[in-house]
Design brief:
It contains five helices and four strands; from the N terminus they run H-E-H-E-H-E-E-H-H. It is mainly alpha-helical. The termini are far apart.
Length: 121
């Protein structure tokens, strides 16, 4: 899309990440920091598709973080993806619709607090 040769490994902004970790610890949220797989296929038809990524330490599959990071890099902005696990694809576990509607507030609180803190710096 950007007409660049080579491969680009999009990553989160470290200052935003560091602040998000502080916020998660402050409110006592269980968190993990690590790599995500950005894919246009969230539920792959190949039942073994995620095995290799899991062995490489990928923590989750989502659909937007790489694009968010690449667009931020192109625009000279900072970006951070904060994700909440709704389905554990390796164990076949999933939250029901009610839990999805009511249980993701910690992620939102962390994101809002990071935005306020970083805006005041």
């Amino acid at each position: 899309q950007y007409g660049l040769g080579g491969s680009f490994a999009p990553i989160a902004n470290y200052d935003l990440l560091k602040e998000a970790v502080k916020e998660a610890e402050k409110i006592g949220v269980n968190y993990k920091v690590g790599n995500l797989l950005s894919s246009d296929v969230f539920y792959n038809a190949n039942p073994n598709f995620n095995d290799g990524w899991y062995k490489m330490g990928v923590l989750g599959v989502e659909m937007e973080a790489a694009a968010l990071y690449m667009n931020a890099a192109k625009a000279g902005k900072r970006a951070l993806a904060i994700c909440t696990v709704s389905d554990h694809i390796m164990r076949g576990e999933a939250l029901d619709a009610d839990a999805r509607q009511t249980s993701f507030t910690d992620m939102m609180e962390i994101a809002l607090n990071v935005a306020v803190t970083m805006n005041n710096k």
